[in-house]
């Protein structure tokens, strides 16, 4: 029963987790806009989400040791995302590849999508709650 | 989310220090002699990215270096600090560079404040997930 509930929310949880991760990466890019030799980084969100949701969760989950087969499987996924480097369209002399405009746009975009994921997980929870309540 | 606070916070600290150094340079653009009797030398901060964990990186100021450019010499024979030829040694501060630095620092600071604010709002919203 509980794992069904967790499964119902899994997709949104993974999406939020990845959005959060990306938020951190983009914040790091913006923070390092003036650091010499800093290379801007990012990851492909849809690839990572597909990997996180469809991929075999057993492999990437952090398990508690189960000493009996009747123990429930617990898993907090701690997969690492595949961080890539941004291709600079205008390299700067100090070796920094942060393009502030790109980063800010991506940051705003990511924030809105994070909010969207929050709204969706909320309505999902409301739907499940509604289904569980007696009239 | 807390890591974002740390990242943006470190950037704000670093940019504020850059601003500080710029302010000190501009303020001393015309000081003829410092406490050691030497003319003031312009200072610049050097940023360094600070890796904390995979991917996310904050910023810190690695060091504050003195500008090695030659000091400016002005011909002012009646100045009390003039040398035998009548020249006074002045700081090597370039006001134009400093203004540009100041504007760049304040823009970067603003961008980081924005990042911080947005992240804070998202975090507060996340805390209310599941409430009706």
Automatic annotation (TrEMBL), chain A:
Subunit architecture: The basal body constitutes a major portion of the flagellar organelle and consists of a number of rings mounted on a central rod.
Alphabetized UniProt keyword annotations: Bacterial flagellum, Cell projection, Cilium, Flagellum
Chain's role: Structural component of flagellum, the bacterial motility apparatus. Part of the rod structure of flagellar basal body.
Subcellular location per the Swiss-Prot or TrEMBL entry: Bacterial flagellum basal body
A Pfam family matched in the record: Flg_bb_rod
Domain Flagellar basal body rod protein N-terminal per the UniProt entry, residue ranges: 9-39
Gene Ontology cellular component terms for the protein in this record: bacterial-type flagellum basal body, rod
Protein's name in the database: Flagellar basal body rod protein FlgB
Keyword hit for Mitochondrion: no
TrEMBL record, chain B:
InterPro entries: Flag_bb_rod_N (IPR001444), Flagellar_basal_body_rod_CS (IPR019776), Flg_bb/hook_C_dom (IPR010930), FlgC (IPR006299)
One Pfam family here: Flg_bbr_C
GO cellular component term, pick one: bacterial-type flagellum basal body, rod
Localization per Swiss-Prot or TrEMBL: Bacterial flagellum basal body
Database matches in PROSITE patterns: FLAGELLA_BB_ROD
Residue ranges annotated for the Flagellar basal body rod protein N-terminal domain, each copy included: 6-34
This protein's UniProt keywords: Bacterial flagellum, Cell projection, Cilium, Flagellum
Gene Ontology terms describing biological process: bacterial-type flagellum-dependent swarming motility
Domain (Flagellar basal-body/hook protein C-terminal): residue spans on this chain: 85-127
Keyword Methyltransferase: no
PANTHER family on file: FLAGELLAR BASAL-BODY ROD PROTEIN FLGC, FLAGELLAR PROTEIN
Subunit and partners: The basal body constitutes a major portion of the flagellar organelle and consists of four rings (L,P,S, and M) mounted on a central rod. The rod consists of about 26 subunits of FlgG in the distal portion, and FlgB, FlgC and FlgF are thought to build up the proximal portion of the rod with about 6 subunits each.
Family: Belongs to the flagella basal body rod proteins family.
Identification of the protein by name: Flagellar basal-body rod protein FlgC
